[in-house]
Each structure stands twice: as C-alpha cells, then as structure tokens.
Amino acid sequence: MERPLGALEHSFWLYDQIHPIHFALTARLEGQFDLDRLRQSLQQAQQQHPLLRVRIETDRTGQPKFVEQTAEIPLRIVDRLDDRQWEQELEVELSRSFHWMTAPLVRVVVLHSQRISELIVTCHHAIADGLSMAYLIRDIVRGLEMPSQKQRHLSESLAIEHLIPDTYKLDTAVYNTEQMAPTETQCDYNFEVSTRSRPHIRTVLLSVELTQWLHRRCREEATSVHSAISAAFLLALSSRKQSPSSLKCLSPVSVREHLSQSVGESVGLYVAFAVTNHDLNLDACLWETARSLKSQLSEAATPQRLFAEARYRQAAIAKLPKAEMVVQGMRQQRRYDLLVTNLGRLHLEQQFGTLRIAEFYGPTVMSEVEQERVVGVATLGDRLSLTVAFPSATTSDAEATEFLAEALQILRQDKGLPPIDRSIPRALANVAIA
C-alpha cells in the first residue's frame, strides 16, 4: 500500500535532504522488562501506526509517496551505567540521519538495566510530530505488559491538508505567496544521507515543588508555562548580547483538536508554527515578556492562520520545488533565534503492571539554523523537564551549560523558591544557584 506525501511531510522530506531534522523523545522507565518482549512490542506498534512501516520513494513525475515495506524497527541495546549516559547516546542519535528510501523511518535505543532504563525513540520528521512520539512510547511500554492485536491501514493515516475544515478559508492577507510558491521545478533529489555534527545536549528535571510553583505563578501572572519558559530563555539569550535585542521565538503548535476528523493519538505530522517577536532591553521583565509572548501566540496560532499557511504550502509544494528552495522558503517564513517545542502536560498512563514511565525528555530536534538553540519541554505527572540542544560548531560545552543555567536562574528569580532538583549535574547546579 502507498499514499502521496502531504505538503508539510513533503517539505520536511526535502528539508531533511539538505539539513537533517529528525528528532527524538526519551523516556526513563522504572522496573524490569524483557528485551525479546520489547522487540515484539515494537512490531505491535508498527501495526498500530502505519507510518512506522514506510519508506519514501518518488514516481516518474518526481512526486514522493510513502510505500509500506516489511522491516523491523532497528533496536540498539546499551548496558546502562549511570543516570547521565543516555544524554550522550541522544547526542549520537541526533548525529545519525535517516536514509529516506529505507524503511522504517524510526529507530530505538534502550539503555537497559534491571531497575531503571532509558528508551530513546528517534524519527524522521516527515512521519511524526512530538506528541506522536509521546503516544508511541506509551504504546511501546504498554505493549510490554499488555499485548495488542490492533492493526491500522496506511489509508487511515491522512496528511494534514486533507483534514482542514472547510470553514477555514484561505486568508490572502496573512502570507506572502511569492515566498511560499517558488516557480522553478527540479526533481533531481538528493539520494545521499544528509549529515550533522554531534550536538551538545543539556537536560534538567525540575522538582515537584518547583514545577508546582511555576504553574501557580504563571496563573498569578496571567500567562502560560510555555510563555514563561520561552521568556526565560529569550532573556538569557538577550543578556549575552549585552545590548537591546530584537529576537524571534518559534513555537510549534498542535492542530489535532482543530482537524475535520479525529486523528486521536496516532503517529503523524499534525503541527503548524507560530513566530513571536520580542524587542528586549537589558532590564526586560520575565513576566511582561511572557505575557507579550502569550498574547502574540494567541493571535498567531488561531486555526484560521495556521491552516492558511498549510494551504499556501500545499500550493507551493505542488510545483515540485528544489530542496534548496524549500529550505530557503521555510527559513524566511520561520526565521528565529529560539525554538521552544512544548508537549505541554501529558495526560498519559504511567503505570503498566510493574513497569512505570517515570520521566519524559524532549522533543529534541535541530534544523541547522545559525546559532541555533532548541528547547524541548514536557510535563509528565508533577514534574517538568527541559531538554536543550546546541550545535557544537557554534557553542562550546561550557557555553551550553551556562546558557541553560542562566535561563533557570531567571525562572527562579523570586526569593524563597524551592531548590533546583538534584538531578542537575553538580557543575550546572552550582552555576544556577550562585
């Protein structure tokens, strides 16, 4: 079975040919499980989620399509030695691209021990978004304890453009069609695997007390957790420039709840993007910046605007543009200094028999934007995690640590806040608390 790529899937496929944008999500598991049973659970997940069993090929006109192929999800097993080892494995995974002509476009790494394990799922961005990976990890863990016979066909996995409600008409005032619709066509695609240097990854798991405080304070300040976290990192970035700064923040937005029919918790690419603009002085306030970001997002992330971009993209991709032109167009439309991709509060089951999903980290992604800083946010249960990715070509190890520490200190700027969670490396905790 096969189906054509949707416009956003097509765009990410082309972008990945120049700059890898595969991404990963990591879960920490508590309890024991059998590795052979894990392989069976991965096979079950492929039956539940059709895009986990596809490769991409092109027809004679150059149109790409998903083609089903029988191929197991690659599983790499690593003996778990300590609590931070998984970050190094995540860096390795982000440096390894996918070959789009080979199925499946997903792989798994397990850092395994008898008591605690980490499960890293890495995926080509043409087939999934961040929420998809959270649902997928939940399904994989559930399958370790509760086998499933559920099977879905590829025809059930529709692209976002086929799910836009008729009520959202094209708004010609929102987007510049000349930027979105290049006229030159070139079907000579890149069949080589794109490459990326190994990035720096920094992660923090906030304590229950600090997570609760942050949620409570955001309500008091009439803003959102996403806006407060984004503002803290924007201010940390601005302080490094040592002068008033004009910065842009990119926020992926899930459109699942606005689609014409429910896609439920299936694996797929159901996101749009909103950019906010911030002119920051050296004395800029965290909460004023957060309120401004929330206000801009409320305006930019309406279904009307989000689906307008999707329709223009559909028109542009229909002309089969070069990969280089898609990269240029996407960067013009989404030029940013900071990317904050937030899964929000995940209302997922955590306990499956004796096995428990204790923590989520990510999404972790990079798109090779100059001086890129990407923050992945996830809240599971009562704890919020931050996963920050930096390109090693422009950011040193020490700079990555200091930048995250400074953003954390901005979030904790009020007196009397709970201490930062001890899971932060000692060097980072010392900087953040100083």
Structure, explained:
The protein has 434 residues and is of the alpha+beta class. 35% of the residues lie in helices and 24% in strands. It contains 12 helices and 15 strands. The protein has helices at 7-18, 35-48, 85-95, 130-145, 177-180, 208-220, 225-241, 286-300, 303-317, 323-333, 397-411, 426-433; strands at residues 2-4, 23-30, 54-58, 64-68, 75-79, 106-112, 116-123, 200-205, 245-254, 271-280, 338-346, 351-352, 355-365, 374-380, 383-390. The strands form 3 sheets. It has a 6-stranded mixed beta sheet with strand order 5-6-7-2-13-12, with helices on both faces. The longest helix has 17 residues, at 225-241. It is globular and about 60 Å long. The model is unreliable at 171-185, 418-423 and 426-434 (pLDDT under 50).
Task: Give the topology, please.
Blueprint: E1 2-4, H1 7-18, E2 23-30, H2 35-48, E3 54-58, E4 64-68, E5 75-79, H3 85-95, E6 106-112, E7 116-123, H4 130-145, H5 177-180, E8 200-205, H6 208-220, H7 225-241, E9 245-254, E10 271-280, H8 286-300, H9 303-317, H10 323-333, E11 338-346, E12 351-352, E13 355-365, E14 374-380, E15 383-390, H11 397-411, H12 426-433
Parallel strand pairs: 5-6, 9-11, 11-14
Antiparallel strand pairs: 1-4, 2-7, 2-13, 3-4, 6-7, 8-15, 9-10, 12-13, 14-15
Short summary of the structure?
With 434 residues, the chain is of the alpha+beta class.
